[in-house]
Write a structure and sequence with these properties.
Blueprint: E1 5-9, H1 11-24, E2 29-33, H2 35-39, H3 43-50, E3 55-58, H4 61-69, E4 76-78, H5 87-94, E5 97-100, H6 103-110, E6 118-123, H7 135-146, E7 151-157, H8 170-180, E8 187-190, H9 192-198, H10 202-205, E9 208-209, H11 227-230, E10 236-248, E11 253-254, E12 260-261, E13 266-271, E14 288-291, E15 294-297, E16 307-310, E17 322-328, E18 334-335, H12 337-343, H13 348-353, E19 361-363
Length: 364
Protein backbone atom coordinates (compact mmCIF):
# COMPACT_ATOMS: atom_id res chain seq x y z
CA UNK A 1 0.00 0.00 0.00
CA UNK A 2 1.14 3.63 -0.43
CA UNK A 3 3.00 5.29 2.40
CA UNK A 4 0.32 6.64 4.79
CA UNK A 5 0.62 10.38 4.26
CA UNK A 6 -1.68 12.65 2.26
CA UNK A 7 -2.54 16.29 1.74
CA UNK A 8 -6.16 17.26 1.14
CA UNK A 9 -7.27 20.50 -0.52
CA UNK A 10 -10.67 21.63 0.75
CA UNK A 11 -12.71 23.19 -2.07
CA UNK A 12 -15.50 24.30 0.23
CA UNK A 13 -13.04 26.14 2.48
CA UNK A 14 -11.64 28.00 -0.54
CA UNK A 15 -15.15 29.16 -1.45
CA UNK A 16 -15.81 30.18 2.14
CA UNK A 17 -12.60 32.17 2.47
CA UNK A 18 -13.10 33.95 -0.84
CA UNK A 19 -16.61 34.96 0.24
CA UNK A 20 -15.20 36.11 3.58
CA UNK A 21 -12.78 38.43 1.79
CA UNK A 22 -15.64 39.89 -0.23
CA UNK A 23 -17.47 40.69 3.00
CA UNK A 24 -14.33 42.33 4.37
CA UNK A 25 -14.17 44.76 1.47
CA UNK A 26 -17.72 45.42 0.29
CA UNK A 27 -18.15 46.60 -3.31
CA UNK A 28 -14.53 45.90 -4.23
CA UNK A 29 -13.69 43.33 -6.86
CA UNK A 30 -11.41 40.50 -5.79
CA UNK A 31 -8.24 39.17 -7.31
CA UNK A 32 -7.73 35.56 -6.32
CA UNK A 33 -3.95 35.36 -5.96
CA UNK A 34 -2.69 32.01 -7.25
CA UNK A 35 1.04 32.70 -7.48
CA UNK A 36 3.48 29.96 -6.46
CA UNK A 37 1.15 27.30 -7.86
CA UNK A 38 -1.69 28.65 -5.70
CA UNK A 39 0.45 28.81 -2.58
CA UNK A 40 1.43 25.18 -3.01
CA UNK A 41 -2.16 23.95 -3.35
CA UNK A 42 -2.05 23.52 -7.14
CA UNK A 43 -3.76 25.90 -9.58
CA UNK A 44 -5.86 23.13 -11.08
CA UNK A 45 -6.98 21.97 -7.63
CA UNK A 46 -8.10 25.39 -6.39
CA UNK A 47 -9.82 26.59 -9.54
CA UNK A 48 -13.29 25.27 -8.72
CA UNK A 49 -13.10 26.77 -5.25
CA UNK A 50 -11.96 30.18 -6.50
CA UNK A 51 -13.80 30.52 -9.81
CA UNK A 52 -16.10 33.12 -8.19
CA UNK A 53 -13.15 35.56 -8.08
CA UNK A 54 -13.31 38.56 -10.41
CA UNK A 55 -9.78 37.92 -11.62
CA UNK A 56 -6.61 36.01 -10.83
CA UNK A 57 -3.20 37.37 -9.90
CA UNK A 58 -0.06 35.36 -10.54
CA UNK A 59 3.58 35.73 -11.53
CA UNK A 60 4.59 33.81 -14.59
CA UNK A 61 3.29 33.12 -18.04
CA UNK A 62 3.15 29.36 -17.56
CA UNK A 63 0.70 29.83 -14.70
CA UNK A 64 -1.34 32.21 -16.85
CA UNK A 65 -1.48 29.63 -19.64
CA UNK A 66 -2.70 27.04 -17.15
CA UNK A 67 -5.51 29.36 -16.06
CA UNK A 68 -6.59 29.87 -19.67
CA UNK A 69 -6.40 26.10 -20.28
CA UNK A 70 -8.82 25.65 -17.38
CA UNK A 71 -11.31 27.80 -19.26
CA UNK A 72 -10.88 31.08 -17.37
CA UNK A 73 -11.66 33.96 -19.73
CA UNK A 74 -11.70 36.78 -17.18
CA UNK A 75 -8.87 39.10 -16.07
CA UNK A 76 -5.44 37.71 -15.24
CA UNK A 77 -2.85 40.07 -13.79
CA UNK A 78 0.90 39.43 -13.90
CA UNK A 79 1.86 40.82 -10.51
CA UNK A 80 5.54 41.33 -11.39
CA UNK A 81 4.89 42.24 -15.00
CA UNK A 82 6.97 40.98 -17.90
CA UNK A 83 10.63 40.02 -17.74
CA UNK A 84 11.66 40.32 -21.39
CA UNK A 85 10.17 41.84 -24.56
CA UNK A 86 8.85 38.59 -26.03
CA UNK A 87 6.66 38.13 -22.94
CA UNK A 88 4.48 40.92 -24.29
CA UNK A 89 3.55 38.77 -27.28
CA UNK A 90 2.08 36.15 -24.98
CA UNK A 91 0.35 38.87 -22.96
CA UNK A 92 -1.39 39.87 -26.16
CA UNK A 93 -2.26 36.29 -27.13
CA UNK A 94 -3.57 35.34 -23.68
CA UNK A 95 -5.14 38.75 -23.02
CA UNK A 96 -3.16 39.34 -19.84
CA UNK A 97 -3.02 42.50 -17.80
CA UNK A 98 0.41 43.24 -16.38
CA UNK A 99 2.17 45.33 -13.78
CA UNK A 100 4.67 47.98 -14.81
CA UNK A 101 7.13 48.78 -12.04
CA UNK A 102 10.31 50.02 -13.77
CA UNK A 103 11.55 52.03 -16.75
CA UNK A 104 12.76 48.90 -18.51
CA UNK A 105 9.22 47.56 -18.74
CA UNK A 106 8.02 50.83 -20.25
CA UNK A 107 10.89 50.60 -22.77
CA UNK A 108 9.72 47.12 -23.74
CA UNK A 109 6.19 48.37 -24.33
CA UNK A 110 7.45 51.31 -26.40
CA UNK A 111 9.07 48.97 -28.93
CA UNK A 112 6.36 46.30 -28.86
CA UNK A 113 4.33 45.80 -32.03
CA UNK A 114 0.72 44.95 -31.21
CA UNK A 115 -2.74 45.41 -32.67
CA UNK A 116 -4.35 45.23 -29.23
CA UNK A 117 -3.26 47.86 -26.65
CA UNK A 118 -2.33 46.53 -23.22
CA UNK A 119 -4.04 47.04 -19.87
CA UNK A 120 -1.28 47.86 -17.38
CA UNK A 121 -1.06 48.42 -13.64
CA UNK A 122 1.49 51.09 -12.76
CA UNK A 123 3.06 50.23 -9.42
CA UNK A 124 4.22 52.74 -6.85
CA UNK A 125 6.88 52.06 -4.26
CA UNK A 126 5.11 53.79 -1.40
CA UNK A 127 7.45 52.41 1.26
CA UNK A 128 7.80 48.66 0.76
CA UNK A 129 11.02 49.25 -1.22
CA UNK A 130 10.70 46.21 -3.41
CA UNK A 131 9.10 46.89 -6.79
CA UNK A 132 7.63 50.14 -8.08
CA UNK A 133 8.39 53.72 -9.01
CA UNK A 134 9.14 56.05 -6.09
CA UNK A 135 6.48 58.72 -5.57
CA UNK A 136 8.61 61.49 -7.06
CA UNK A 137 8.92 59.58 -10.34
CA UNK A 138 5.48 58.01 -10.47
CA UNK A 139 3.65 60.71 -12.41
CA UNK A 140 6.41 60.88 -15.02
CA UNK A 141 6.10 57.11 -15.52
CA UNK A 142 2.33 57.50 -15.87
CA UNK A 143 2.84 60.22 -18.51
CA UNK A 144 5.21 58.00 -20.49
CA UNK A 145 2.75 55.13 -20.46
CA UNK A 146 -0.18 57.34 -21.34
CA UNK A 147 1.64 58.54 -24.46
CA UNK A 148 2.21 55.03 -25.82
CA UNK A 149 -0.19 53.66 -28.44
CA UNK A 150 0.68 50.19 -27.09
CA UNK A 151 -1.07 51.05 -23.81
CA UNK A 152 -4.80 51.22 -23.30
CA UNK A 153 -5.99 51.66 -19.73
CA UNK A 154 -3.60 52.45 -16.88
CA UNK A 155 -4.55 51.26 -13.41
CA UNK A 156 -2.73 52.31 -10.25
CA UNK A 157 -1.34 50.04 -7.53
CA UNK A 158 0.91 49.78 -4.52
CA UNK A 159 1.64 47.18 -1.84
CA UNK A 160 1.43 47.66 1.93
CA UNK A 161 4.43 46.55 3.99
CA UNK A 162 2.90 46.81 7.48
CA UNK A 163 -0.80 46.07 7.09
CA UNK A 164 -0.45 43.13 9.49
CA UNK A 165 1.15 45.14 12.32
CA UNK A 166 0.75 48.22 14.48
CA UNK A 167 2.07 50.61 11.81
CA UNK A 168 -0.91 49.77 9.62
CA UNK A 169 -1.45 51.41 6.24
CA UNK A 170 -1.92 55.11 7.03
CA UNK A 171 1.53 56.34 5.99
CA UNK A 172 1.66 54.50 2.68
CA UNK A 173 -1.95 55.30 1.91
CA UNK A 174 -1.27 58.98 2.40
CA UNK A 175 1.75 58.86 0.08
CA UNK A 176 -0.20 56.99 -2.57
CA UNK A 177 -3.23 59.28 -2.43
CA UNK A 178 -1.18 62.48 -2.49
CA UNK A 179 0.78 61.28 -5.51
CA UNK A 180 -2.18 59.97 -7.52
CA UNK A 181 -4.79 62.54 -6.48
CA UNK A 182 -5.96 63.57 -9.96
CA UNK A 183 -4.79 60.57 -11.99
CA UNK A 184 -7.54 58.50 -13.63
CA UNK A 185 -7.72 54.72 -13.48
CA UNK A 186 -8.79 51.90 -11.24
CA UNK A 187 -6.81 51.26 -8.08
CA UNK A 188 -5.66 48.16 -6.17
CA UNK A 189 -3.90 48.47 -2.84
CA UNK A 190 -5.01 45.93 -0.25
CA UNK A 191 -3.49 42.52 0.43
CA UNK A 192 -5.03 40.02 2.86
CA UNK A 193 -4.10 41.90 6.04
CA UNK A 194 -5.21 45.28 4.73
CA UNK A 195 -8.49 43.83 3.45
CA UNK A 196 -9.36 42.15 6.73
CA UNK A 197 -8.20 44.91 9.04
CA UNK A 198 -9.05 48.03 7.03
CA UNK A 199 -11.29 46.88 4.17
CA UNK A 200 -14.31 48.71 5.59
CA UNK A 201 -12.56 51.94 4.57
CA UNK A 202 -13.33 52.70 0.91
CA UNK A 203 -9.97 54.48 0.60
CA UNK A 204 -8.22 51.18 1.37
CA UNK A 205 -10.36 48.69 -0.53
CA UNK A 206 -10.81 51.00 -3.57
CA UNK A 207 -11.60 49.07 -6.79
CA UNK A 208 -9.78 45.75 -6.32
CA UNK A 209 -8.36 43.84 -3.36
CA UNK A 210 -5.60 41.24 -3.72
CA UNK A 211 -6.05 38.61 -0.98
CA UNK A 212 -3.54 35.81 -0.97
CA UNK A 213 -2.74 34.00 2.26
CA UNK A 214 -6.17 34.55 3.84
CA UNK A 215 -7.85 32.78 0.95
CA UNK A 216 -5.78 29.73 1.84
CA UNK A 217 -6.83 29.68 5.49
CA UNK A 218 -3.94 31.40 7.23
CA UNK A 219 -4.30 34.50 9.43
CA UNK A 220 -2.17 37.32 7.97
CA UNK A 221 -1.61 38.89 11.41
CA UNK A 222 -1.04 35.71 13.43
CA UNK A 223 -0.43 35.44 16.40
CA UNK A 224 -2.33 38.67 17.17
CA UNK A 225 -5.37 37.04 15.56
CA UNK A 226 -6.01 33.49 14.45
CA UNK A 227 -8.18 32.09 11.68
CA UNK A 228 -11.14 31.66 14.01
CA UNK A 229 -11.05 35.40 14.74
CA UNK A 230 -11.20 36.19 11.02
CA UNK A 231 -13.70 33.39 10.24
CA UNK A 232 -11.32 31.63 7.89
CA UNK A 233 -11.14 27.89 7.27
CA UNK A 234 -8.11 25.68 6.56
CA UNK A 235 -7.83 24.90 2.86
CA UNK A 236 -5.03 22.33 3.17
CA UNK A 237 -4.76 19.41 5.56
CA UNK A 238 -1.57 17.43 5.89
CA UNK A 239 -2.27 14.12 7.62
CA UNK A 240 -0.29 10.95 8.16
CA UNK A 241 -0.57 7.82 10.28
CA UNK A 242 1.33 6.24 13.12
CA UNK A 243 3.53 3.44 11.80
CA UNK A 244 5.10 2.40 15.09
CA UNK A 245 4.79 2.80 18.85
CA UNK A 246 7.53 2.89 21.47
CA UNK A 247 7.25 2.68 25.27
CA UNK A 248 9.76 4.96 26.99
CA UNK A 249 11.10 4.55 30.49
CA UNK A 250 12.15 7.59 32.52
CA UNK A 251 15.43 8.88 31.12
CA UNK A 252 14.98 7.39 27.63
CA UNK A 253 15.75 9.72 24.75
CA UNK A 254 14.16 10.13 21.34
CA UNK A 255 15.62 10.70 17.90
CA UNK A 256 18.79 12.21 16.49
CA UNK A 257 20.87 14.09 19.03
CA UNK A 258 18.77 12.68 21.88
CA UNK A 259 17.22 16.12 22.15
CA UNK A 260 14.20 14.85 24.10
CA UNK A 261 14.50 12.91 27.34
CA UNK A 262 11.46 11.40 29.03
CA UNK A 263 11.02 12.43 32.65
CA UNK A 264 8.41 9.69 33.21
CA UNK A 265 7.18 6.55 31.51
CA UNK A 266 5.35 7.43 28.30
CA UNK A 267 4.22 6.09 24.94
CA UNK A 268 5.26 7.76 21.71
CA UNK A 269 3.98 7.26 18.18
CA UNK A 270 6.21 7.25 15.13
CA UNK A 271 4.53 9.16 12.28
CA UNK A 272 5.11 8.73 8.54
CA UNK A 273 6.03 12.37 7.92
CA UNK A 274 9.38 14.16 7.86
CA UNK A 275 11.21 17.07 6.35
CA UNK A 276 11.43 15.28 2.99
CA UNK A 277 7.62 15.64 2.90
CA UNK A 278 7.90 19.37 3.49
CA UNK A 279 7.38 19.35 7.23
CA UNK A 280 9.88 21.78 8.82
CA UNK A 281 12.86 20.18 10.53
CA UNK A 282 12.86 22.99 13.08
CA UNK A 283 9.45 21.94 14.42
CA UNK A 284 10.87 20.07 17.38
CA UNK A 285 9.59 19.19 20.85
CA UNK A 286 6.41 21.03 21.74
CA UNK A 287 5.08 21.63 18.24
CA UNK A 288 1.33 20.93 18.32
CA UNK A 289 -0.24 18.10 16.32
CA UNK A 290 -3.58 16.30 16.49
CA UNK A 291 -3.72 12.54 17.07
CA UNK A 292 -7.21 11.20 16.35
CA UNK A 293 -8.32 14.81 16.66
CA UNK A 294 -6.78 15.23 20.14
CA UNK A 295 -4.16 17.91 20.63
CA UNK A 296 -0.71 16.69 21.61
CA UNK A 297 2.90 17.49 20.70
CA UNK A 298 5.96 16.43 18.80
CA UNK A 299 8.85 15.09 20.87
CA UNK A 300 12.43 15.02 19.61
CA UNK A 301 13.75 16.10 16.24
CA UNK A 302 11.95 15.77 12.94
CA UNK A 303 13.91 13.44 10.67
CA UNK A 304 13.76 12.94 6.92
CA UNK A 305 10.85 10.50 6.82
CA UNK A 306 9.50 10.34 10.36
CA UNK A 307 8.63 12.35 13.43
CA UNK A 308 7.55 11.25 16.89
CA UNK A 309 4.57 12.37 18.96
CA UNK A 310 3.53 12.13 22.58
CA UNK A 311 0.60 9.73 22.98
CA UNK A 312 -0.02 10.55 26.64
CA UNK A 313 -3.20 12.58 25.93
CA UNK A 314 -4.46 9.86 23.56
CA UNK A 315 -3.98 6.52 25.33
CA UNK A 316 -6.22 4.72 22.83
CA UNK A 317 -4.03 5.74 19.88
CA UNK A 318 -1.68 3.27 18.27
CA UNK A 319 -0.58 1.79 14.96
CA UNK A 320 -2.65 3.29 12.13
CA UNK A 321 -4.01 6.25 14.12
CA UNK A 322 -4.48 9.46 12.14
CA UNK A 323 -2.11 12.35 12.84
CA UNK A 324 -3.01 15.82 11.58
CA UNK A 325 0.10 17.94 11.09
CA UNK A 326 -2.01 20.92 10.10
CA UNK A 327 -5.56 21.46 8.91
CA UNK A 328 -8.76 19.64 9.86
CA UNK A 329 -8.92 16.22 11.51
CA UNK A 330 -11.58 13.65 10.69
CA UNK A 331 -13.49 14.57 13.85
CA UNK A 332 -13.58 18.23 12.81
CA UNK A 333 -10.86 19.49 15.17
CA UNK A 334 -8.67 22.18 13.59
CA UNK A 335 -4.96 22.81 13.92
CA UNK A 336 -4.21 26.01 12.01
CA UNK A 337 -1.14 25.90 9.82
CA UNK A 338 0.01 29.12 11.55
CA UNK A 339 0.57 27.22 14.81
CA UNK A 340 2.84 24.63 13.24
CA UNK A 341 4.69 27.34 11.33
CA UNK A 342 5.35 29.40 14.45
CA UNK A 343 7.01 26.42 16.14
CA UNK A 344 9.30 26.15 13.13
CA UNK A 345 10.17 29.84 13.22
CA UNK A 346 8.39 30.53 9.95
CA UNK A 347 4.97 31.40 8.51
CA UNK A 348 2.11 29.42 7.01
CA UNK A 349 3.03 30.58 3.51
CA UNK A 350 6.27 28.59 3.61
CA UNK A 351 4.67 25.38 4.84
CA UNK A 352 2.04 25.47 2.09
CA UNK A 353 4.59 26.17 -0.63
CA UNK A 354 7.08 23.61 0.67
CA UNK A 355 4.82 20.56 0.44
CA UNK A 356 6.97 17.93 -1.26
CA UNK A 357 6.11 16.31 -4.57
CA UNK A 358 6.18 12.86 -3.02
CA UNK A 359 3.13 13.66 -0.87
CA UNK A 360 -0.10 12.52 -2.60
CA UNK A 361 -2.68 15.33 -2.88
CA UNK A 362 -6.44 14.96 -3.20
CA UNK A 363 -9.35 17.41 -3.22
CA UNK A 364 -12.66 17.21 -1.42
Amino acid sequence: MPRPIQATIHTGALRHNLARMRRAAPDARVWGVVKANAYGHGIERVFDGLRAADGFGLLDLQEAQRMRDLGWRGPILLLEGVFEPRDLELCSRLNLWHTVHCDEQIDMLATHKTHQPHRVFLKMNSGMNRLGFPPQRYRAAWTRLDALPQVDEISLMTHFSDADGPAGVARQLRVFNETTRDLPGERTLANSAASLRFGADPAVRVDWIRPGIAVYGSAPDFPDHDIAHWDLQPTMTLAARIIGVQQLAPGDTVGYGSSFRADAAMRIGVVACGYADGYPRHCSTGTPVLVEGVRTRIVGRVSMDMLTVDLTPVPQAGFGSEVTLWGRAVNGAVLAIDEAARSGGTVGYELMCALAQRVPVVTD
